[in-house]
Structure formats: C-alpha cells, structure tokens
Amino acid sequence: MRGKEFSFSLFGESHGKVVGVLIEGCPPGLEVDKQEMRVDLERRKGKKRFSTERRERDEPEILSGIFNGRTTGAPITVVVKNKDVDSTFYEKIKDKPRPGHSDYTAGEKYYGYNDHRGGGVFSGRLTVGTVIAGYFAKKILSRRGVEIRAFIKSIGGIECGGCDLEDIFHEDFELCPDDDAWERMHGLMKEVQDDGDSIGGIVEVVAKDVVSGLGGPFDEDLAADISKNFFCIPAVKGVEFGSGFEVSEMRGSEANDEFYFEDGEVKTSSNHCGGILGGISNGMPIVARVAFKPTPSIFKEQGTVDLEKGEDTGLRLKGRFDSCIVPKTLSIVEARMAVVLADHLLRWYSWKEFMNLERE
Amino acid sequence: MRGKEFSFSLFGESHGKVVGVLIEGCPPGLEVDKQEMRVDLERRKGKKRFSTERRERDEPEILSGIFNGRTTGAPITVVVKNKDVDSTFYEKIKDKPRPGHSDYTAGEKYYGYNDHRGGGVFSGRLTVGTVIAGYFAKKILSRRGVEIRAFIKSIGGIECGGCDLEDIFHEDFELCPDDDAWERMHGLMKEVQDDGDSIGGIVEVVAKDVVSGLGGPFDEDLAADISKNFFCIPAVKGVEFGSGFEVSEMRGSEANDEFYFEDGEVKTSSNHCGGILGGISNGMPIVARVAFKPTPSIFKEQGTVDLEKGEDTGLRLKGRFDSCIVPKTLSIVEARMAVVLADHLLRWYSWKEFMNLERE
Amino acid sequence: MRGKEFSFSLFGESHGKVVGVLIEGCPPGLEVDKQEMRVDLERRKGKKRFSTERRERDEPEILSGIFNGRTTGAPITVVVKNKDVDSTFYEKIKDKPRPGHSDYTAGEKYYGYNDHRGGGVFSGRLTVGTVIAGYFAKKILSRRGVEIRAFIKSIGGIECGGCDLEDIFHEDFELCPDDDAWERMHGLMKEVQDDGDSIGGIVEVVAKDVVSGLGGPFDEDLAADISKNFFCIPAVKGVEFGSGFEVSEMRGSEANDEFYFEDGEVKTSSNHCGGILGGISNGMPIVARVAFKPTPSIFKEQGTVDLEKGEDTGLRLKGRFDSCIVPKTLSIVEARMAVVLADHLLRWYSWKEFMNLERE
Amino acid sequence: MRGKEFSFSLFGESHGKVVGVLIEGCPPGLEVDKQEMRVDLERRKGKKRFSTERRERDEPEILSGIFNGRTTGAPITVVVKNKDVDSTFYEKIKDKPRPGHSDYTAGEKYYGYNDHRGGGVFSGRLTVGTVIAGYFAKKILSRRGVEIRAFIKSIGGIECGGCDLEDIFHEDFELCPDDDAWERMHGLMKEVQDDGDSIGGIVEVVAKDVVSGLGGPFDEDLAADISKNFFCIPAVKGVEFGSGFEVSEMRGSEANDEFYFEDGEVKTSSNHCGGILGGISNGMPIVARVAFKPTPSIFKEQGTVDLEKGEDTGLRLKGRFDSCIVPKTLSIVEARMAVVLADHLLRWYSWKEFMNLERE
User: Fold this and answer.
1) Is pLDDT above 70 for B173?
2) For an engineered disulfide with D6, which of A64, B71, C21, D343 has Cβ 3.0 to 4.6 Å away?
C-alpha cells in the first residue's frame, strides 16, 4: 500500500524464512508496545478451534525504525519467523493447481519461478505484515481520537442481528456482538468442517470520530483507497460502503442522508452513504462491509489439471485447514482501514496548518 | 488514475470553461477516430428521455499528443467545452448543502474555496474525461483482442434475466440485453420521475479474452486496482467480482472453480471468482458488478443545514435531473475497467519479452 | 514532476495548438494574479535581442481550478496558445536528425510517431508550463516567507563576480548582478551569434528562509529531488549544490560548515553544503548551480545521417535562434526549485501539526 | 528508489540490528549467486588501509524472494547484520551535531526522535542495501548486454589521466585505470590521514551497450532519474553528464555530437552529451561524473553548538574513519546507475512488444 504519506510493503513467503513488512512515513515519537502488537497478531489467528493449527507463536522482531521504544520516523521493518513448516505435500501437487487458490495464476504471472509452497507470497500468512502496519496506523489515528472496530456480519448467510454502531466500540465481544447469531455461525462452521468443506462470510468495519474532509475527487477518493486496500486481502470478492448494494434498490428520498446541526456540528440523520460523500469523509462513522469467499482449502475431491502432463486430473488436499477464515480476518480488515485513514489524516494535516497561516 | 505505464488525470468543473483529461503513457501509433470517441461520449449521456437535458453536444477537442491522426506517445490532452450553464440557482443554495451531494464535504476539504456551482469538480460531468481516457485504453486493449462490455444488471431491484456472458458481446442491445426487464426498469424510472424522486441500480461489466497473468500480490492486485477505479465514479457504493457478496453464503466445494483443459488451454468450469484469482487474471472473463445509489438530485423537500446561519433548514431543488443515472454510466464503467487492464497489459509486456530473452 | 503533495504535468507541442500544464495538489485560497504570471512568462523569453523572435505573446488561459480569483484546491489547468508557426522547414529535415537535438532519440523512443516539428514535446517552448507551475509553487512558498532568485553565473566561461547571496534578493538586476561581467557576456553572445554559433553557461539559484527539516534520507532527499527537476529542463548537463564539484578538491576541515548560534537560531559559518545536509534543509540558503549546454541550433554546416536513405549527410539549419538560451532560463530554474520546495514544505506540515498534538 | 517497474527501499540503522533492502519488481528466473553479491559488498568497503576498519564481514542474508537459487518475481528482502558496534561515544556527543554530518538536520526532520548513533539511518552503512539492489539490477541489464563500470576520476584534484572509455571495461584495475595518478592519490590520502583530515574526489561511471530509446521527456528523463539516484548517495554534491559543466564554456559547433552510420547503426563522432539527448539514451555510452565531498569525520577540533545548553561549543571526534571515502563508492555509484537503467529497460520492453503487435 503506497499512500502519499504513509506506506507499507509486504514481503516473505508461507514456507520461507520470515514474513514481514516495511513501513515508510510513520511519524516519529510513537510509543511502541510489543504486547499490543501481539494482541492484533493473535486476533489474526482467530479462534483456535476453527483455525489452521500451525503451532507457532507469531513473535514480531523489530529490525529497524524503533529507538528507545519509540518510532524514529525512519523506515520500520518488522519480521515474524516461520516455523514448523513441512513442504512435502506441496511438492507432490506442484503441477496440480488447487482450485480457488492462486497456484495457477501465480505460475502464469511468474513464469513458473514462484515459490509455490503453501501459496508462497500469496499465502494468507502474509497478512501478518498487514496487521503490523495496521498497528502503527492505529497509533497514528488514536492520537487524533479515531477508533476502528471490525466484527463478523455474517457467516454462510447467518447474519449478526441489530448492532448499534456506537455500541460495538463499547461492548466486550471478541468476534460478533450478537451472541445468538454467533452460536449459530459457530454451529455451521463445525458442521461444514465435519463435512470437509468450508464456508464464506462478511465482515463489517466501522471507523468513528474521523475528521471531515479526508479524501477528495478522482485518485484521492477515500472510498476508492479503502476499497483497493480491502481487495488486497486474500479471498475478498466484494466491498460496499454504507447501505452498499442495497442502495441500488432505494429511492433518492430514502438514500439521501439529511443534514442537521447537533451541538454546533453538522451531522446526518441517517448514514446510507457510510460516512463518505463525493469521496470525502463527512464526519459520520465510516461503515464498510467486506465479503470473503469460503477458503478454497477443502478436503473434498476436486477437478483440476496436471500442467506437467497437460491433462485433466483430480486432487484431494491434506493437512489442517480452517473451515472458515472470517474470524481470523477482523484485525486484517481493521488494519487495511487504518492504513488508509492514517495516510489521509497525515495528508489532511499538510493543508490544515498551511491554511491557518493565511488566516493569521 | 495513476497506473505504472498508463495514467490519466481529470480536470475541469461543471460550470467552468471545460472538462478534460490528460493521458500519459499511451503508446504511439494508435489511430484516433473522433467519431468513435463521440460514440462513447454520447453513450455517457444515456437515453435522452431520462437524462438531464443540458443541450450541449460533447465535442472533444484534442490539444496535444496526436499527430497525423495517430497517438505520438507524448501526453494526450482532450477537452470538451461547457455550454448553456446557468449558475443562478447554485448561488442561492451556496450555503445549503444538498443531501447526498458532495457540497458539504467539498467545502470541508477545500476550506470553502471550491467551485460549488453544479458540484464543481465533483460533478458527474467530469466523467467526460474518464470516457475519453477509456477510448484510448480500449484501443490499446483491442490490439491484443481484449473486449469490454457493460450492461444494466438491475434498476430499483428489477433484474436483468439470464444473460450469457459470451452473448452480450454479440447481441445488439443498447443498455440491457433483457428486453422485458428493461421495459419494466423503464416503467419504474418513469414512475419515479413523475414522483420527483430517483432510483439506483447495478451495472455489470465483462472483459473477455484477457491474458492470464495480469496483476499480482499486494499493491499489484488486479481486482484492487479495478475496484479503486470503480469507486472513483461518482455515486458508486459497492463493487463485487464474480459471485461477489453471494460467495459469502457459499461452501468452498461450490465456490471453487475447477480447472480443465480445452484445446490445450486451461479453463475453469465455473467462474465464481470472476476471472481473478489471487489478484491475477486467470484468462476467464473478468466479471464485476458496480452498485450505484439513486442520484441525490430529487424534487422533494429535504432537510439540510444553513452553514451561514448555523441552523437547520429545508431545501427543494429545481432544474432538470435524471431520475436514474445508471443508463448513462455504461461507457464510464467500461472506461474504468479498460484503463486498469491497459495499464496492467503494458506492464505484463515489460516482463514478457524479457523472459523470452532468457529462453533464447 | 510528481511530488507527494504538489505535482504538475506538462503537455503540448512546439507546433501544436497549445502548450500547457496541469497542476495537482495546490492548496485552495491562493490569490491568482495573471499579471504576475505574465512577468515570469516574459522572463522566460529573455532579452529580445538574443532570443528566438517568435512574435507571440504568451497569454495564459486558465481552464480549471481557479474560482473567484483564487485557487480552489482542485486541479489547475493553464494553456498558452501557439501562434505564427511555420513547419515547412521541419518537414524538409524530417529524416535528418539535428545534432545535439532530441530528433533522433525522440524517434527511437516513439517509434517514429512523434511530432517532430520544432522538437515537438521536447521543445524548450514546453517550459512555459513549468514557469506557470512555478508561479503557483512560489505563491505557496511566499506565504511561509521563502524566496527564490536565479541569476546568470557565467556564459562561455565569463563569470559573474562576487555576489553576496543576501544582496541578490535586494539588488535590482534583470539577469546578472555583475554589470561588468554581463557586459562581457553580452559581447560574447553577440560575437557568437555573428558567427552563426551558440554558447553555453551556468545559472545559480538561491532559496532563502527555507525552514530546516525539509527532505529526508533516500527517496526523500531534497537535493535529489531538486537535481531531478533541474535535469528535466532541456539542455542541462550538470547540477551542483554549495561548493559542488570544487568540494572534491577540499579537505574536510575546510568543507565542513561549523555550527553556531545567532539570536537563538542554529546557523553555519560557511555554506559549502549549499543548505542541504544529509538530504535535509538546514535553514541556511539553498544554493545550486545548473550548467546549460550551448543551444544545439546553429547556422554552421553539421554532419548528420539521413535515416530514410541510410547514409551520412550534411545539414544547415535556417530560422531565428538564440545564440545563448541561458538568459531565458532564469524563471525556469526558479520554477523547478520552487515546485520541489513547495512539495516538501506541504509534506513538512503533515507531520508538524501532528507532532504538536502529542505535546499538548 | 521507486521506479515504475523496478524499485527498492532501504532500511536499518548504523548501530541497529541490521541494514537491508526490499526490492520490488525484479523479474523472476534470475540466478542468484551470493558470492557475486559479496564481491560488490567487499568493493563497498574499499581498500582496507584507508577505510573505517569496522571488522565485520558483510554477509548478506536473504529473507524473501529467492527460491531454488533464482528470483521468484516476488519482493526480495536481504539484510546484513551489524556487529561490533560501540555507541558510547555517540551518547556523549548526542547534543553536539557534528559539522558536515546529518546530525543536526536529522534532529530537525525527526523532532529529536531519530536514532543518532553513528548517523542512524543517514549512515554510509545503509549503502549496503543499495549495492545489493544494484546486484539484481546488473543481473537484469547483463541479460541485455548492458555493462556498467565506475572508477576514480580524481581525488583532491589529482586527476586520472587519459582513460579510453572502451578500455575501462577490459582493463584489470581495481579503483583507477591510471596507476601513476592512483599512486599520487594514494599518497595524498595517506598525507591527509596523518593530518587527521579528509579529502574529496570525483567518480566517473560508464554504462555501455545501452539500447537507444530509454527515458523520455519531463518526468521520464533518463538523466534526471540517474541524477536523483546519485544525489541519494551520502556526500554527493555534484552530478554531470558527458562534458558536464565544461559544456557551459563550449560553442554549439563544438558541443554538438555529429551523427554518422557505422555498420548500419547510428553513432555520434563525439559524446559531449554523455549518451543522453533530450532525456533519452542515444545508444552511445552513458557517461556521468559524481562529486563527493570529503567525509566530514575528521580528528581536528571543530566548532559546533550544544543544542541542550543552547550555546556554542567545540567538538573533537574519536574513532577510526576513512580519510577518503571515494574508493568505497564505486560499487554504490554503479548500483545507482544500474537500478535506473534496469527500471527504464523494463519499461522500454512494455512498449517494444506492443509495437511489434501492430506490425505483424
């Protein structure tokens, strides 16, 4: 993600030495607490029961950019070592691309030179770096009072019920604010897992207390930047803001969010636009939903091709896989929202003080 | 849109002198036919009956980058002059932001210095430049055999029925391949218009004969770039690829697209992924859907604020507005898909011949 | 020039309809005075006697981004129409690249599709857009008190004598603060012109009252950005800062600029570094020199190739050319310095207020 | 350095855990030979006698992007661990910026949060990553037959005598092709060292067999990109191409390089332009010179300020320093030339095959 002020680059492979991230443009002086960083990294591993149990603790190792416990302003590099990786099975299926995975397209892109083991650079494991970048972005945002929270909106069509947007920041839940719905989602995940299959879902994410005026027209569009970042998360197939696809069925008189004053601040009485109007934040909560496909790693026999032999064949995967990756994605989705908002917030400051100069 | 090889920048205002576009990175030698350019510009104005009847012909004037009827490789600038613009009404509502419009957020972004007349730089009129950029991008793509077509998928919940993806490139339709559905959409648009209201809809777009291997991981993700571009179109609130949000309800055994060989080429038996796996094109048609909100310009009384007086107030718009902008967006959606694919295609070539060097 | 906050793109051709510029990232609210803009454009045309006398007045036409006499914050487009252009001669020499000109390399780059007339997009005339971008950049800088001034340091080896850097901002000179030297330069230019030849020179440029802390390591290096911009000016073959190439002959004990306090501010007792240390401004004047080659347009017979016939041939140019372009470059060099400093100043603000947040 | 196709980002600090580099856009399939990489890294450490004798072997550790001994196309990360670092002295001078060093400006840029030990991120040690990036860039170039070689042009005004540009690629020299001059340079370096002082110098670099057509107008200017990269090397104060600053004293009839045919290829009879015309390579050798200031680390007493106390003070450095860093810079200068040419070469391919499509 290359923002104008805040950027990060991911590196590493699933079965390589490390996964990591290089962060550029993070302001100096931010206190770094590894324990906080670990919390988001642990969230990225989801509930133990339904996640791939690769028994490694993701311990972040800081290689650069931190001095005396604070960011220096220089590039920050953090790596997490990979462990316990057996690549034997991947050698066996080297020429048989797994359906729904990037095996085939990675080979096309990289002329067959890609590290195919465990998906290589396309592995979900690379999101470790995203979460770490998100940690720093959230630190930037929190200084301005911006908070971000993601939760499971649905799994396999089972929807999280009425959740007040303000409440989700106060309620003490881990994955989904609706306990009943989560019970049923949980049951479905187990059922699907017993069946050797997988299931998709939707994550909703909210950013509150965002200043108005972030973003702009064309390439500066805030929704466009956020959306690009969400689609950089593996397995995402859809992104919407506010009322999203539903708004296509609405009338203007319903979809338009009316303005009113509250304590001298401009608010809107509804938030169908999801906090972004004309590509610019309006000060209301930014609300987005991200659709994840079921993880393509399933235990059922699937049809594929043998690229070596040039013929159709079948494939049955082995190993330990999540039946549903959605619970693992919350800190990733939050991170992607955070990095865009941090970049736009820093850009916003570049004009803000300059405009004050004039008014002196 | 700043691609690595192909870029464009929009400029102009709704009630200013011109709207236009500067295109950088377009290869030399492409024949330019203004009549073809006009066709997409006319499509951008939609059916006369349901569109804002600003009686101007959008005549493209080429300022740079074309010589002897062909692109030179240097920056291309094209402008379209604005005409017939009465800004009186906009002066009256200067301090009363129209709900659902960018008036309020533009003022926040630009500290009140923005040209507010007709939405200024945020006006849908700026998509003239997008369509012109798309014209050049399509020329690049067509040399490689890539074709793009958009159609109305739904308006106000009325859905276009079974349309075979291959057929939409051959069928001779203007807006929607399903005549019956279009009849009903048309009826709804009229009904809504008579009611002084507006209605949203969904556009589907397909790119076929795209080479496999476009895109990549992280910032190179093809879906991410396309999505970013779609969200740069005014009024877009959702984007999805392939089975999109529906995939969140699917099982992996259903959502995974199985590979097989057809005439020596790798194909997939379904296309739930919408032609993009791991951020990279797989050679199948790229299929995306874009959700448009109802145009916020309606004739009903709406609540807003008076920013000058600092109090709540009401607003009733005057003028001629579309009840539904969806029919006007087809060439814009196609253009946004085209510019991303053209950029990624040119980038793909940068490795392709280099890789051949090795194999000599 | 694509800065992170302030950017501009040039377009147009020497014998095309217009030359122009698209400026992105200029803050809103800056008053625009066309008369001021014209002054820099007139400076770009230099002394009448020694410049190509294409009798056009460069009248800037603003196409976008200005409203009520001020910048809006949206993209600014300005064009200047071309006039009086006779391309006949250029048709005759189409296949005979002029030595020292870009004719040959432009053909290589653009596969022969380039507009070759008058150098096309490579013409010095394109610097009109640079000067206009510089006008806006200077407006940004002046709000913070930064001033930039360029002068002729030497022509054909005749050097401008002792000029106190502070004085050049107060002295009322047009091209060179040393009247005697200028007299001799002027004589040399006339002599060279009578001989049908041309002569090179060096421009020195100074920016004063620049805040310390602009720039950074690696890609953020301020000298690197300025240098890149200077080399984007046609005919530049060398760039140096402070004592520049001479520093290669110095000892560290001489070249190191010692620090001291003056009225509570850190200053250096010498300025061999030219105001930039470690890629970052130190608050002292930024001093750079730019070497221009003699304009390649001369009236003497020269050897070249006939690309059509594939054989060596000769060439004698016709027309009106400057014997020395250096006097015309002052506002261009200033503009290139200004755009980099404006970009870095805006970036500097993006951290400045953020850092204040912490200290509250 | 962010090219359009090939990029790299440096990270690490002089006294931190590692220095390293992240390389993006390197094509897949390039064989990686660590021994070759070590050669350039050893060259970066120069002659033992005159270089800072920090007794660490720079052993590159590859963290990502290499698989089965070849590049994969994914991001490449290489780090070199730091060793033997005693930061005691730097703590003592924390508030006394060393003249000529980045200590003061780094503090200004980073609000005092920078890692000041050994210059932190501004240390010459960071060029380890540049040399590694150059290793990969050279591999790309060599597949197309492009070779790059740098040599010492002068130290303290002692100039390398007549060196035929073609010869420097065949001659077996380490630092300077003129043995006599090198003897005298060597003597001067020793003399300066005994005096506790340092001395500057100039490096010349040549790239041969570069294809014509790399680069372009404006932001694509090849000289501008190379120059920007050279100025990113610590201690560089001047850059020139071809006859460089001398060209300012030439007449056009002398400076213009005449074209002629040789074996069907267009050549120039002289190379005052240094292989770049109008920002585009002309197929002749690209020749540039880079001026290095004397390293600011000297043993003489120098005046500086005490930022803590707010008063003027003196400073005498301790440790082991090079009296001249120029011999250590050759592989760095080559690397900076290589990364720009590699990026532009890959970009050149993006049009090349596309243009062939048309002519089929």
Assistant:
1) yes
2) D343
